[in-house]
Amino acid sequence: MTILFLNILILLIAPFFIIGIIKKTKAFWAGRKGVSIMQPLWDFIRLMKKGEVVSETTSWVFRYTPVIALASILFAAMFVPLITGKAIINIPFAFVIFSYVLGLGKFFSLLSALDTGSSFEGMGASREACFSTIVEPAFFITLASVAALSQNYSFESLKLILKNAGGYGYIIIALAVVTLFIMLLIECCRVPVDDPTTHLELTMIHEVMILDNSGIDLGLITWSAAIKMFIFEALIANLLIPLSWAWWISIPAFLVIICILSVIIGTVESSMARFRMTHVFEFIFLMSITALLILALVIYRIYGGG
Amino acid sequence: MGIYFFSLGMLFLGALLSIILKDESKKIKACSVCSVISTLFMLIPAIQVIKTAKHIETVFYTSPLLGYIDISIDALSAFFLIVISIMTSLGIIYANGYLKPYLNKGKNISAHCFFLMMLIASMIMVVTVQNALFFLIVWEIMSLSSFFLVIFEGEKKEVINAGLKYLVYMHISMIFILAAFIILNAHTNSLRFVNFVDYMQSPNAPANWVFLLAFIGFGIKAGFVPFHNWLPDAHPAAPSHVSAIMSGVMIKTGIYGILRFLLFIGTPSKLISYGVLAVAVVSALYGVLYAITQHDIKRLLAYHSIENIGIIGIGIGVGMLGMAYNNQFAAVFGFAGGMLHILNHSIFKELLFCAAGSVYLKTHTRNIELMGGLIKKMPFTALLFIIGSVAICGIPPFNGFISEFLIYAGMIKAVPAAGMKLFIVLIMAIAALAMVGTMAMLCFTKASGIMFLGNPRELDTENITDAPVSMIIPMSILAFLTFVIGMYSQYFISYASIPASMFTDGGNAVADLMFLYDFTGVISCCFMIFMGILLVLFIARYILGRGKKSEKYVTWGCGYNRANNHMQYTASSYADLFISTLKPLFKRVSHIKKPKELFPKEAYYEQEIEDIEEAYIVKPLLKLDEKFLTKFERIQNGNIQQYILFGLVFLILAIIGMVYFGG
Question: Of A49, A194, A263, B169, which is most buried, counting CB atoms within 10 Å of its CB?
Fold first, then answer.
């Protein structure tokens, strides 16, 4: 019961602080003092109190999408081991369900963007849909290889790499961290794939899809984007924390890794500009390459070299 | 067995009524009643066979020449009977509404109704007859009656062309199936399927070759790449309920044929298992890639049928690999997933074709580029189409997810089991299936987003109303089924797993079957949690939004306030980023008329994407064929006396041949 409670608590609260840490990091590199770490939470509460403006072109799809997207992301999070190292729902083949459930949210956010009849939002939707066709196979290759390596088919397999792969484990973990980190940048639309703070709609991906959302809906969408980022950070943290660690090491380690990852995202955003749209594809294909490298290493570990 | 013949008789009664009834509008009603009664009765033996796992059969003795005719319902037949009877009767109920405008125009539909009933009856016989000769006869009746259904609007040139193309493809398919049966008949000197099983499982049987012939023959019917070419032409040409029945049910008889031959050969060799998996993966990817490029909604759905046949094939391929490598888990999950996907695909594809048909009936166009904003005029059709889209993309909690998930599970668990070759192949198949899923998402957000959402583009939507109730009801039943099978898969999985267990190694697979049942139960518990979350959030959202100001305003145009409907994102622009990324896979054909003269009047630019298989394989082959056949043009001179002479010469040659070789 404590496990369930802790997991849900961190799932609902931590995302705000992640955004806060990223903002603080960016402010640090820019030489500013920056807003408080609590600011995203206050923003969320402020949005919850606001009224909204709805486009008259839209239909129920637009109206219900924020809730469906949030529900799908919360549900997907249940399959991922969070702070306690145990997922709320720990079943085999969880990564398939995880990514298809996220697909539900994505499907409706794409439809909602098209629902407004805006040319800009259609553009964002087109990009998001296109990128995910390249991201998903790489994710599946990575997870299926890791699952095959450890003969464990839930997300716990991420924690078992070192145990099963010996020395190669370090390389596989490094590659998997890179793969999932790139996936995080793409799925959560951070620099260098997308710039959440840009002012030019033509270059946006995710931000442009929600141009017409306001009030409570906007609050829910930003919150679910933050939860999504937290889930991917948690996946990376799982790679780095083996199953064998005791809870009094693994829980602080989890929190520290989440903070460090957020600082890294902030640093990346401060140190580089976003890619041109044509170069984004090259960046995404990098993820496929690292995924294939993981596959090659796993094959070598199982069948080659003894 | 009596019930089976009774319900088959109901179908023939419907066919008869459609000829003898005088009033045109009553014909389709009479057919629907007959079909529904037939379905209800057909379900009794089918469900009984699945529940008791015992097959029922009757054997007729005809004559020394034809021997025994076995009519038998085993688990595989029962599964297909359920799919065929439920889906076709829903399709015919839908046809009541769909044919109304044609009836009002005074079109004669008796032939159409007749062939509709014949198609259903022949499909039911195809999956139950266990005698090669009669199988071929009912198979041919099925192909011919569906041909006549396709050319319903035969006054249009493209419809006739598509119909002829379909007919030619079906007869090429017939040649291969015939060849497979001839080989079997020559070796066993029998036409009964039971004897084929004994022969094919003997050590020296040419199992691979027979299976290859059957796979090509039935693969043409099912629409595996590279035999898929008739599908994208025939479906847009046919009326929507016929497309729904053909795509939802009839192409599955091709899968049935492949599975039946698989039962003949028992454990497949590794070679053909890899072959089936490879063809299936290519079909799935190819189908969805070309679906993205299409803007004709029914062509798009036809390409999606190819994709889904590919997914079914992946399931069967994984199951075959599981058998070949003696990995029961993969065999159980692969076959069960593939079987369940047959059922699921027939449900959501029929739903989508029907919804697309309703849109076509109201807008008189299939070009989605012209549509937009239809959700306000046709709210129910839009909702049903979106449900179908979510289901076909394999998104939970709808039914497409369950079957794809079982296939994934089979593949993932089989990965580390045996050998490096299998490992790489399966991981690549997993990646391909993941890619197919996301591309389907791109395609169906495009289709439903551009058709129903946003503002109307070219079309005048002023007078459009929603489809009549007689069309909404069957579609709602289908949509309900997609949801129920997705949510409570543990109650439906036995319909797929019991036929699937015919292929697996009975005793050793029991543990995996039990795991399958438990696991689907777990999944549906998870989905209940999801529905709970969804409900809580909706209530929370409602409470939060109460009493807050909600204004209506125009869509934010990023500072530009003269936006009009033509500036919306279109289907082409939505798909363009993806298509241009994969440029080499498509052949773009542009039709340009440039503006000329000092005061240019007319100019246009049009781009379409041609099927590369058609452009680079079928067309050159046809050209070659034409070149060869024109050499014989002289023979065809219209002189009947000469034709009789040719006949005579042929007969004499045939007799000489018989005397010479037959001795």
Answer: A194
Q: Which two tokens stand for residue B597?
A: 């003269």
Chain B neighbors of A211, CB-CB under 8 A: 556, 558
Q: What is the value of ipTM here, to two decimals?
A: 0.95
A161 Cβ contact list (under 8 Å, min separation 6):
A146, A149, A150, A169, A172, A173, A176, A239
Q: Which residues of B touch A212 (CB under 8 A)?
A: 555-556
Query: Measured between CB atoms, which of B396, B416, B568 is closest to A148?
Result: B416
Q: CA B473, CA B467: separation in Å to the nearest integer?
A: 10
Q: Which residue of B has its CA nearest to A54?
A: B552
Whole-prediction pTM: 0.95
- Confirm whether B641 is domain-assigned: no
Interface test with B, best of A119, A280, A289 (most B CBs within 10 A): A119
Would the CB atoms of A122 and B538 count as touching at under 8 Å? no
Q: Is residue B172 in a domain?
A: no
What three-state secondary structure class fits B551? strand
Taking only the tens place, the pLDDT of each residue in A199-216 is 777 778 888 888 889 999
**pLDDT tens digits along B403-417:** 999 999 999 988 776
Q: What is the pLDDT of residue B639?
A: 86
Cα–Cα distances in Å, from B366 out to B158, B359, B381, B441, B459? 14, 8, 15, 20, 11
Which residue is listed with tokens 């486009």?
A: A55
pLDDT per residue over B40-65, tens digit each?
Answer: 999 999 999 999 878 888 888 877 77
Is residue B553 less than 8 Å (CB to CB) from chain A?
A: yes
Q: With respect to residue B555, please indicate whether it lies within any of the assigned structural domains.
A: no
B381, part of any domain: yes
- Distance (Å, whole) CA B619 – CA B636: 24
Q: What is the pLDDT of residues A134-192, one digit of tens each?
A: 999 999 999 999 998 888 898 988 888 888 888 888 999 999 999 999 999 999 888 88
Query: Structural domain of residue B494, as residue ranges?
Result: 267-543+569-582
- Distance, in Å, from the CA atom of B562 to the CA atom of B584, rounded to the nearest integer, reads 38
Structural domain total, chain B: 1
| pLDDT mean over B334-350 | 95
Structural domain boundaries, residue A251: 2-303
Cα(B91)–Cα(B475) distance, integer angstroms: 9
Contact A122 B529 (CB under 8 A): no
Spell out where B47-129 has E strands: 56-63, 67-73
Where b means 16+ CB within 10 Å and e means fewer, B178-210 reads: bbbbebbbebbebbbbebbeebbeeeebebeeb
What residue spans of B223-370 are helical by DSSP H? 231-237, 240-245, 251-265, 270-293, 297-324, 328-363
Residues in B closer than 8 angstroms to A61, CB to CB, are 375, 386, 453
Asked if the C-beta of B427 comes within 8 angstroms of chain A's C-beta atoms, the answer is: yes
**Which tokens in the block code for residue A22?**
């990223």
Nearest CB to B581; choose among A67, A92, A281: A281
Instruction: Count the helices and strands in chain A (H runs, E runs).
Output: 11, 1
Rounded to whole angstroms, the Cα distance separating B357 from B319 reads 35
Mutation test of the interface with chain B: which of A53, A70, A88, A96, choosing the one with the most B Cβ atoms within 10 A?
A96
Residues of A in contact with B565 (CB under 8 A): 117
pLDDT, tens only, A15-24: 999 999 999 9
